[in-house]
Amino acid sequence: MDNTTREDRPPSRSEMRQWSVFAGKFPLLTRSVPIVLWALGLEALFLAVRHFVTGNAMGQDSHAYWLAAQGELSYAASPGQRDAYLYSPAFAAVIKPLALLPWPLFCAAWFAIEAAAMVWLVRPLRVRWAIPVCLLCLPELVVGNIYILLAAATVVGMRRPAAWSFAVLTKVTTGVGLLWFAARGDWKRLLQGSGATVLIVVVSYAVDPTAWSDWIQFLLANRSGTPDSGISFVVRCLIAVALVVIGARKQWPFLVAPAMVLASPVLVSFIPWTILIAVPRLLMEGSTGKRQ
């Protein structure tokens, strides 16, 4: 018996059929994608090198996670400030064992975790596609945010809805992907995803209710998104919901990734678009929305 899981083995022809159907409907779009990818990838490479050379950006976001997991949580810093921690107490609790490492080792470990997730996400692609996609991830790898991990959680969440709790308990509105199951009437999986999130919240709240109260107040105080967002946060979220619903009706799971980008609380830099690295594997999810 072949013990290789569907997620681990290379995609079969039938699994790539969804991409073939889409490519047949939109040939001009699909032919232009490699050109656009290489152009954006080279731009991302330039940004990553510039960040690395300046010496100020390496691990600037993961450093906030490291500090938050080491001591008492504080939500005093505003979004956009250096070392501002923005996520739930549950996230800090999960990474606490890793945060026992000295900062240089933690930074290296975080880089390695995201890099491994990136490699897994681009595995279905041919080399001429995979290279520019990896280049697009370089700025995210330098700053050490969680966008590559969100992309991985998106793919996993299509089959194991509990994975959506990662999005909801970090960048809350990126959890818009859970609506995929609601739009398809897959109430069992919707319950699995929301139930797992509620369970994590209940357990974590019992451990540290004060931190949860502080986080909720922090979210309410910044409910309009960060001030650097170019488009109204509410408008972006409404468009994101529409994309998820359309994707669910058309059975186009790859639309969930751009929906998450639009729903991101911050959409001013190149980095949030890293979530789109989930698209290759989402294109393989031709039967994701079907009840099993």
Question: How would you summarize the topology of this molecule?
Answer:
Layout: H1 17-25, H2 27-54, H3 62-70, H4 89-99, H5 103-122, H6 127-136, H7 138-143, H8 147-157, H9 164-168, H10 179-183, H11 187-207, H12 209-221, H13 233-250, H14 256-263, H15 279-282
Describe this structure in words.
There is one protein chain. The chain has 292 residues and is mostly helical. It has one domain (17-282). Helix content is 61%, strand content 0%. The chain has 15 helices and no strands. α1 (17-25) crosses α2 (27-54) and α13 runs antiparallel to α14. The chain is globular, with a radius of gyration of 19 Å.
First and last CA, distance: 22 Å
Structure annotation, total helices? 15
Strand coverage percent: under 5%
- Counted beta strands: 0
Overall pLDDT, averaged? 84
Helix content class: 55-70%
Largest sheet: none
| SSE series | HHHHHHHHHHHHHHH
What is the number of independent domains?
Answer: 1
- Rg, rounded, reads 19 Å
Quick recap:
This protein has 292 residues and is mainly alpha-helical. It contains 15 helices and no strands.
